[in-house]
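Late entry, evening session. Most of the bench is empty. Finally got around to the prediction I had been postponing all week. Sequence below, unchanged from the version circulated by S.P.
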Amino acid sequence: MGEQGRYAVRGQVLRGKVTLTKQVLDIVTMMQLVPEVEWLLDKINLLEPKNILEIGCLNGGLTTVLASLGCEVVSVDAYDCETRFDLIKNGETEWGANPHWWNRSEIREIFPHPDIRFIHADSNKLKTANMLRNDFDIVIIDGGHDLKTGQRDFDLYGPMAGKLIAIHDINGYKNLHNVECFLWPTIFWYDVKMRNKFKTEEFSEGDWAGWGLLYPNESIESLFSLKPFVVYGPGYMTKEQREVVADRCKNWLKAKGVNRKVIVKTHDSDRTTYMGLDDK
């Protein structure tokens, strides 16, 4: 792809921010293939996001590039590479222990004030999700790739996406390459493609990595494994009353940063009981 074609869409959407993004891309190294990152950036630009949530950042290469597009980026990772870097002494080394890219001098010279908020926390914990707003334009999931961790991240943060959910390392579903390393993205994306209910896009440059884009619609709830929030109300409740209770519960949950389907059931008691919210 030529230089003009590579940045054509980006130039139209960003109105002059192309230069900064290209400078950052030329400096930053990341755990992703550059052509795939460029493809992802072009897709993101078309949506003109104001904010992005990134689950899993390691050294923050992609985080820095995303912020250079001119939007707020909130990044969550249980591994704080800068703390580990400061603790390493006596010539010892540790893979991934380096300052975040957005704090390195070579980036600061051209991009001194990135709108980045880094949260050092376990993304699988409900209390971490509750620290965040629940209405990001874009959610990027690239954290733990085992089945339990990956699905939990999707359950907690997927509902926060208004325009796009981007999943990294989906390419294994095509040729079963490195399936053990990329187990959740592989199985999840295969499931998405087999259901054929969603608008998706994907791109990969080689036989690993790859980005899968999932555009939320009314069928997306079928991909979440979280149990519904169940409300048991008095048996005399009408359908309209149950709908009012369900709406109130949804608003209460959203205020806590939790997106969950609400089901209202009735029982013989005259009390209203709330069940279903867990933190497993």
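Two things to note before I forget:
The CA atoms of residues 17 and 70 lie 8 Å apart.
The first strand starts at residue 51 and ends at 55.
Will write this up properly tomorrow.
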